[in-house]
Amino acid sequence: MRKGELVISTILAALVICLVLALQRNWHANGLKKVASSAEQLVLGKSTPPGGYPDIPGYQMIHTYYLDREYRAALYRSNSVTLGFAPGHLVIYNHANQPVYKVDTLEGAREAWTALYDFAGRHGLPVRGGSPRPIYTRDLTADGKQELVIGQYSGGDRCCTTVTVLEIEKTSLRTIGRIEGLGGWPFEDLEIRRIGRSPQWELVVHRPQITACGSRENAADVIAVYAYSDGKYTDQTLRFSEYLQGVLRENLAKWSREKNPPLGLLQSLAAQYGVLGQPDRAKKFFAENMARFLPQMKEQGFDPIACREDLDSLVDRLAKPQSSTNSSPAP
Q1: Three-state secondary-structure class, residue 30
Q2: Residue pair 285/269 in contact by the 8 Å Cβ criterion
Q3: pTM
Q4: Partner of 75 for a Cys bridge, out of 63, 143, 149, 247, CB 3.0 to 4.6 A?
Q5: What is the pLDDT of residue 224?
């Protein structure tokens, strides 16, 4: 190769290298700008990647729920945890990631205290080895629309849980029920079941009632039935006396079978007689069976006289709204 040709080739090679370096530098600069812009938008919650959820500044996402093609939900917990719990948010988004429902919650530092009822699970919660895909919606009201159920635990000594029922519409969600005072975690004291021949689903609520007879472990199980009518779920326990009598019969059979039945079962039976509008029978049954628990009460520091008075007062409160309208016999 001639000396002139070599010089030209060297110059051309240098130009190519410079061009490549310039292109690489420009590509990296643009790419970094895009990444930085995307990260900034995510932090601000202005946009998310395809299929992502919006971020909330100061909160971490601890659970997500796929509801249907239109809606999905995310549970957030504040990064500022105090005394083992922190504020939270449950937000339901539409397909465009626009919030259509939001509720403020309280969450544990290690586990979520808010949940959506899983109709494919057991007692509303997923179970190991169960359905691989949770189901969070169901047509509870038999009107062709899907509903979802939210449970919010308030912390404290296993008390209390609030249940909210939402009806899903095409462009919005509507609250059709709110039930407070359930004991335990979501959904420990809630049954969603069909009672009778109606295609609608009822919400059977268990509210532990602590009396002067003993601790929470021995609380009376007070049952209420919420049914759907006039566009919402309301307490309609009086309509379901046949169901309540069936529960009472089962508990009476359990009482007869067990050699040492617990005090909680005795209190629950008295409460169930009361709900059925039979306070005199409730008080008599309790008085006839109270003696076996006197040593236990004395050992734990509970006054039998105060116990009897408190239990009678509970029965009277439960029986008052039923006594004038419910005269059907109980076992």
Answers
A1: helix
A2: yes
A3: 0.80
A4: 63
A5: 96
